[in-house]
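Usage

Read records sequentially. Each one opens with the input sequence:
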Amino acid sequence: MGAIFFCLLFTLTVFGFFFLLPLIFLLLVFVSLLLLVLVLLILLLLVLLILLLLVLLFLLVFEFFL
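and closes with the structure output:
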């Protein structure tokens, strides 16, 4: 009885491990992709902000010289 229970437990554990491992891997990939997208969006916003500030500075200097 104990051997059968142990065999069942072992197969369930191995199956669960091999079944959960790809799921955890996919979850990690998904989360890392989301973080990458967020970082790229933040960088894009920063670049746009810097460009806007440069344009405003250029306009100020340009009007000052005119």
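Summary fields computed downstream for this record:
- DSSP finds one helix and no strands in the chain.
- Residues 18 and 32 are 22 Å apart (CA to CA).
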